[in-house]
Amino acid sequence: MGFKREPQVFSGSINAVEIGAGENKITIGGENVLPLYSFDAPIENRPKIGVAVSDMGYIKGIPGFDAFYNGADTVLEMAKRADAMPGADFLVLCLDSAHPNNGDKSVEECVALVKEVISAVDIPVVVEGSRHLEKDGKLLEKVAEATQGNNILILSAHEENYKSVAAAAALVYDHNISAESAVDINLAKQLNVLINVLGIKSEKMVMNLGSAAGGYGFEYIASTIERVKLAALSQNDAMLKMPIITPVSSETWAVKESIASEEDYPEWGSLEERGVNMEISTAAACLAAGSNAVILSHPESVKTVSEMIGLLV
Amino acid sequence: MALKGLDIFKLTPKTNCKDCGNATCMAFSMKVAQGAIELAKCPHLSEEALATLGDATAPPMAKITLGADDSLVLGGETVLFRHDKTFVSKNLYAVSVCAGCYDEKITAIEKVDYDRLGERMYVEMLNIIYDPGKPGASDKESYIELVKKAASKNRGLILDCKDADVAKEVLEVCAATKPLLNGADASNYEAMNKLAVEFGVALGVSGDNLDELYDTASALEKLGNKNLVLDVGCVSVKDAFEGAVQIRRGALKDGNRTFGYPSIVNVGKLAPGNKYMQTALASLFTLKYGSIIIMEEMTFPQALPLYGLRQNIFTDPQKPMKVEPGIYPLNGADENSICVTTVDFALTYFVVSGELERSGVPMNLLISDAGGYSVLTAWAAGKLSASSLAKFFKEFDVETKIKNRTLVIPGKVAVLKGEIEESLPGWKVIVAPGEAIEAVKFFKEKF
Lengths: 313, 447
Fold this sequence. Notes:
The complex is a heterodimer. In chain A, strand 4 (90-94), helix 3 (107-120) and strand 5 form a beta-alpha-beta unit. Chain A has eleven helices and ten strands. In chain A, 40% of the residues lie in helices and 14% in strands. In chain A, helix 10 runs parallel beside helix 11. The two termini of chain A are 28 Å apart. By secondary structure, chain B is α/β, with parallel strands linked by helices. The longest helix of chain B is centred in the middle third of the chain and has 16 residues, at 237-252. In chain B, helix 5 runs parallel beside helix 6 (164-174). In chain B, strand 7, helix 6 and strand 8 (180-184) form a beta-alpha-beta unit. Chain B has helices at residues 5-11, 25-34, 47-57, 102-111, 140-151, 164-174, 189-199, 210-222, 237-252, 267-270, 275-287, 300-313, 346-359, 375-380, 386-395, 398-401, 417-423, 439-446, and strands spanning 63-66, 72-75, 92-97, 113-116, 119-122, 125-129, 156-160, 180-184, 202-205, 228-231, 263-266, 292-295, 326-330, 338-342, 363-367, 406-409, 428-431. Chain B is globular.
């Protein structure tokens, strides 16, 4: 007799977005089933993992980072190491030092670094701005110009600066653009529509719906991602069919569990263990909710989450 | 799957007697169809009608209780996604113990026991393994001793034991704790069923694959046992994940009653010796449909993210999580430290207190009752105002407890500065930045 399976294969599917050029380009999205439900129908493009490399360096004093980046004195050297990290599908270069609070590095310097990194690494490159909306408007436009032909992904266009960021990235220089909104399906759709109206094809777009560490309002992230996925698949909503990318490490390595010192919380055990578990747990939860790509940083997290994806898809 | 109100109405006496507490039989029928009230509320239904309707109106997923005072509740879910309504029974975490490793493990298990937003975070269940085939593992006598020891720990017990004779002896010493007997499969389900019924405990069912699991569960239902938990197995991660999803989806979306039971997932067996992978899988199954998640251990670094994640996912979307109002000293603050205030919305509290702790500046965080709303929403709803703060100061006797007279208010309600200064004479009110992320810099520079 047995169990009668009723697979949920949807008529709508998530857009497939290509990042990178040449042999090592990757594709995210494309599936027509719920996240990781490869038993309903094959998932051609497994979820991908990006490794974040900040131009301000890695978190010092954590043995796993120190060992992995030991001797890598420049951002370029760090990027080369990350390029070879087991489980890494793409590199996320974060231009944090361009933020006025972090040294206000000039646009020219940042652009030079981006070009250097792209030519030095094999895996596709994603460039994230400084998270200062005004600065990013100028910065990411120049990054897009200087990297034409590399088909990079640029993070992120916001409601406030999408006209300069998205237009330059995807319209003029033919890169991919990530639209970032604040944990709300309606805001996400609205921004996608605005960017689409500029004439940008939705196949060049991904979404960042927001991020949080487990325990820190993660229910909003999970439910927003799930609702967006369901609307894309079951209602075939063209303005929500972009793949979802979720930065994880930037959130998880900033919460108390990952930074409180071992002296202050002796019963909590190793700080590194806490940080890695927080990163792994949040990443797994994001993937279960529906992220097509997550951005991580610790080598153990990248390895574990990549293995988990491999076991499921 | 579910019956429509009209189908139920046809089988009622249609007398509008109101004995069920509803104005009309039609109103009663509509509520039963929605699952809002039970069929049994109507005392006048014929046997025949009850038989016809009973199965169809039963909840799609059974609620199973475990533990000495039925304190552990599993199942009873009605939706596949929390945004559709809410999840009702949080998953439980269990840790496996065996005769050889018990003493060491129980010490570690008992260490993880803390409070997060009013919820006790600890390992709710112990999975007690009977595996005489393994060298060094328990024989029957040591297994019984092990169960006895574990039964004294005030946690739910899972008896991971497929041998009916051993299970019988074990149940004789621990049935009062209402353990889960996780041992029925296609080969032994009749004997196991007899035991489970005799001792009044829930029965865990497993199979080599989903079809065998289904057939065995179905056979147990035919024997009248509806106190079941379904083990998704440990053949592979892929199969276990499919099992958890198919079971829950089959029950809730496709109305498949035989799968209308909680699930049990042993991530310890799926990734033996790999703690990181167990954390990853436990998180996956916390989101997707694991009811009991068994791990090899639960260290603090694993517990912190998992319990936080679970608390988030099992929050009712209609009711925001709240923090108790009060004075929270941070960074070793005392009565001479400055005061900072924000709302009682848990997310705001966590983000703000995290940033404040990172600043390293000693301060007293004052949390007033703002209805569980975020700063701007609370302000707009009149829950965060000069008078609400003044009331809080009075109620908690802030002016006696704290000598410092500096109060930092959220940047988003800078407009309140003047009013607060008026209602709290003698206090110097300072406006913080609008975003929590800027707080570290602000406090480090200012104080």
